[in-house]
């Protein structure tokens, strides 16, 4: 419900320029995140395991991390015109979770580990950052084509300028690299101990490492000055597609011990 | 209401006449002093490129004098016929001021500068001691109206000149212009205006080139740029982020291949090109290049036309806000008439008297209660007599003094709170004290 109001406020601010929405949308997001964090802590204490045991628990964590990463970028860049697009993703994830989440009291011992909680949380934050970076990349390309095609509509008027969108996408890009790096690190420490079937050649693990390396190379390419503008945005969207592939197809069909 | 407005604007006179009645800061200051000597204790005078307006408090019969005063102050009797000036009195003048502050009376609909220009006039009067109680309130309301119209409607959104449109587009591509370099090719009027707008947006550096070096130098001086030779400007292209081109040339001065080469040298950093030249100066195929944004005069004009149309669409909403603010102002002003204030004050004191009599009636014998009523009424009437007579007999005072006196009384006794229905709270306050 709170996410619905947040998205509504961001939508009102973007499309209708409503003054109250412009003023209160960010505080409303902060309040929502606060209650969401409380909810996640409450679930962890109540059911004695981190909220990572079912798809719907993962969805709520994903909604939280997307909204959190977005807030971080909004506060850093001071550009508030993109929240409607990003927070819609968080809203639908939370909606799916709220509708179908179940209270699981009996879960395998391996899922009660706090290290696993940290591993999954950082990975989810990483994937959220990847999603946000791609969403900004998409908005960049949308605005890029509108400017090129002389279409001066709402998107042109309300979205931040291309350089800001590029900066926002790149901020998320760097966060994705950081969180995925942490997830990989924690995974390497914890997974061999927790899983007898652990293998360094597991497709999901290799896939995640490849994505991490791809983002690392993207950062290097951008920092060295070679890659700019549209090209970096396309890379960000490609990174998202590869991640989606890793999270879905590889996870379901190829991964052995690493399916959660 | 005794607000008078006399002035000249783009509605009443052409530029050749308007410029003769343009008042500099010093001229406005000295004129305010002279007006004061003529008995106009309250006056605000401001001049912009499209208007000169004088607001004062007086009688409508003084309008002729005020028109002549403005003309005489500029010694323009020969050139400015009084018929070029307009005059308004009463509520029409307040509405006019609100409309001017809102930008709907401007030549450029939604003009953003006008509000600060009126504020300059307001501060000038404040410093000169000609901003009385009434004008202060009217101008404060006008500023509030202007601000509301700009925040609640899109009247000032979107560029409505080709030169500003170009700069606005640049702002949609680049985050900060202070680290960017712009190259102006040519020294025509639109190029100059665009360069000025870029300077206004704090462009990092401005390079100027033209076939006639003297013209380039003159423009560089005006806009604070540096000149580069026309025959070798291509060598500096790898430094620039923005190009504004407006030269007469039968051939493209930059081909798509030139720009491809240039892009390679500058790591494909975004390049924004405005081609105002007719025939076009830049190869239009450059538009299809990656990270290159090329606009010609037609595209910019199309954008400007769309924005003008959008701004016009907001006028009804702006007028609705003006009507609302005008109603509030009129309500406030009406409350400052002597009669309603006298009535409100009587009602207040009578209410207090009644409450106290009712509260304490039991302490008196039933036979004394009628006497108590009569005695308290007499006391109240005697206390109120002098203040009410003074309020009634204010005709010999200036409008401003009278209005201020009434406002003070209303504030002291909290009459506005009472007339808006919070009598209970007043009673509580009285009882509590």
Could you characterize the architecture of this molecule?
The complex is a heterodimer of chains A (260) and B (433). Chain A has helices at 2-16, 19-47, 55-77, 83-100, 114-148, 154-158, 162-194, 203-223, 230-254. Chain A has 260 residues and is mostly helical. The longest helix of chain A has 35 residues, at 114-148. The mean pLDDT of chain A is 79. Chain B contains 17 helices and 10 strands. In chain B, the strands form 2 sheets. Chain B has a 6-stranded parallel beta sheet. In chain B, helix 4 packs across helix 12 (315-334) and helix 7 (162-173) packs across helix 11. The interface between A and B is medium-sized, with 21 and 25 residues.
Strand content of chain A is under 5%
User: How many distinct beta strands of chain B?
Assistant: 10
Unreliable runs of chain A: none
Compute the CA-based radius of gyration of chain B: 32 Å
Helix content of chain B: 40-55%
Q: What profile does the largest beta sheet of chain A have? A: none
Greatest interface: A-B, 21 and 25 residues
Reported for the largest beta sheet of chain B, the result is:
6 strands, parallel
Helix/strand/pairing category of chain B = alpha/beta
Q: Low-confidence stretches of chain B at least 5 residues in length (pLDDT < 50)?
A: 420-433
Total number of helices of chain B: 17
Layout of helices and strands:
The complex is a heterodimer of chains A (260) and B (433).
Chain A: H1 2-16, H2 19-47, H3 55-77, H4 83-100, H5 114-148, H6 154-158, H7 162-194, H8 203-223, H9 230-254
Helix pairs in contact in A: 1-2, 1-4, 2-3, 3-4, 3-5, 3-7, 5-7, 5-9, 7-8, 7-9, 8-9
Chain B: E1 3-9, H1 15-18, H2 25-37, E2 43-47, E3 51-57, H3 63-73, E4 86-89, H4 91-102, H5 113-128, H6 133-152, H7 162-173, E5 181-185, H8 189-200, E6 205-209, H9 213-223, E7 226-227, E8 242-245, H10 256-265, E9 271-275, E10 292-296, H11 297-313, H12 315-334, H13 338-360, H14 366-392, H15 399-412, H16 415-419, H17 423-432
Parallel strand pairs in B: 5-6, 5-8, 6-7, 8-9, 9-10
Antiparallel strand pairs in B: 1-3, 1-4, 2-3
Helix pairs in contact in B: 2-5, 4-6, 4-12, 6-12, 7-8, 7-11, 13-14
